[in-house]
Amino acid sequence: MKKTGLLLSFLVLLLIAGPWMAGCGSDEAARNVGNDAPKRPEPPYGWDDPELATRLDEALEGWTQDFGLYGAAAVVTTPGWLDWSAATGLHDIETMEPFRVYELARIASATKTHTSAVILQLVDEGRLTLDTTLAEFVPDYPNAANITVRHLLQHRSGIPEVQLVDGIFILAVLLRPGKWFTPQEILAWTYFPFPMYNIRLGEFVPREPVGEPGERYHYSQPAYVALGLIIEMLTGKDLADVYKKRIFKPLRMTEAYLPRKDAPVDPWGYTSLFGLLDEKVPSTELASSANGLNSSGWSAGGIVANARELTKFLSGFLEGHLCSDEGVANATEWVAIEPGDVVGEGEYGLGLFRRQYDDFTTVGHDGGLPGSGSVMRYIPELDVYIGAVTNTDSNYADLPDLVERIHAALVNEQAPPPAE
User: Fold this and answer.
1) How many CA atoms, within 13 angstroms, populate the side-chain half-sphere of residue 127?
2) Is the per-residue pLDDT at 158 higher than 90?
3) What are φ and ψ of residue 197, in 5° steps?
4) How confident is the model at residue 415 (pLDDT cuts 50, 70, 90)?
5) I want to staple 63 with a disulfide (CB 3.0 to 4.6 A). Which of 113, 196, 402, 420 is the partner?
6) What is the pTM of this model?
7) What are phi and psi of 113, to 5 degrees?
């Protein structure tokens, strides 16, 4: 009888603890105001408004429709006070399978903030400093002795962009989708002796530095690939394992991962290659392997996660659960993106953007790749974290973005009209 009683007690304990161990992941929009005393101040707005979930649903649906997205999911949370999640649209337009709240997507450039967090951990451990030069790891790279880790993190290294603008590189990925590009190969594409075809300019341009290190901001995927290489060289481990040990496991990001060589094409989506094609097609029709996409993104844009994992990560990073207070302070030391910008108009720290809207600010990093996209933001004025993923290239639209719509829903105001 004693053994039976103990077994029953154990089963009851599992039933009680089960929801906490499993975490959140409902398909339905939900708001959860904790009964326990919160660990943070009460938010400036009341999140117990019975219409709030409906307004947030409408914000997500409107954004999805206006920007030509087939499916999307979002999470809005203030730990201890607010927890809303919802999904809209389709995962598969042929089978009409709906897009789910827990749907995985390539978070693209939101990966950069994860890479920054690991670098700052290594700085905390004394393995390198923000002034350590690239020459210590890639001595043969042009001007490596003058490029620092801080320059790489701030997009001020002078290393040109390749993956998003070089038509020759994009063609190489499409023609050989099974090729796995090494970090050294990605860096070599920035200084090959033949020009790149810049798809944004529609012309050939030299492969050369875009400026002296520290001189000016220039968004660069290869710079963040160099940071991934530095991480592997310092830790002696594969980057996928480093993210798992240092970020995903501590923050209980059980669904997030960095794809390895020969990983399945999933998660796939719908893409026009950002306008190069006349219509959006399944990304599986363009490439039978994800190796080219995964390896070219890698530490600059390779992580796969869902919307909730993005809020877990950003809150963990900004609230000091991954690195020291000094590390967070360094990450949020803002520099204007364009010379002469008013503070707040557009700034970059170490793997983080800060953007000033009309009446609120956001900190975070979004991302976009063929067939996927992500939004990862924090609104300090409301103490709210936002995570969202989609399975489609976003169309250009001069309309309020997702963050503006969610902010308007939270404060019960109309989203602002597009700028004139």
Assistant:
1) 17
2) yes
3) -100, 105
4) confident
5) 402
6) 0.89
7) -70, -35
Distance CA 42, CA 79 (A): 11
Q: Residue holding tokens 């030391």?
A: 333
Q: Which tens digits make up the pLDDT trace of 67-124?
A: 999 999 999 999 989 999 999 999 999 999 999 999 999 999 999 999 999 999 999 9
Q: What share of the chain is helix, strand, coil (3-state, %, to 5)?
A: 35, 15, 50
- pLDDT surpassing 80 at residue 261: yes
**How do residues 284-320 score in pLDDT, each as one tens digit?**
898 889 999 999 999 999 999 999 999 999 999 999 9
In DSSP terms, 106 is beta-bridged to: 304
The token pair that represents 179 in the structure block: 């090729």
83 in Cβ contact with 31 (< 8 Å): yes
CA gap 351, 346 in Å, rounded: 14
pLDDT of residue 278: 87
| CA distances from residue 120 to 128, 170, 238, 396 in whole angstroms, order as listed | 9, 31, 18, 34
Which tokens in the block code for residue 14? 């599992």
Which two three-digit tokens encode residue 386?
């936002």
Cβ pair 104, 267 in contact under 8 A: yes
Crossing angle of helices 221-235/291-301, nearest 10°? 80
Rg value, the chain, Cα: 22
What pairing do the DSSP bridges indicate for beta strands 353-356 and 203-205? unpaired
Structure-model confidence comparison of residues 32 and 43, the more confident one: 43
DSSP state of 388: E
Q: Which residues contact 343 (CB under 8 A, 6 or more apart)?
A: 334, 336
Amino acid at 161: E
In sequence order, what are the beta bridge partners of 367? 374
Residue carrying structure tokens 């169309």: 395
396: left (phi over 0), alpha (psi -120 to 50) or beta: beta
pLDDT greater than 60 at residue 322: yes
Cβ atoms 357, 366 nearer than 8 A: no
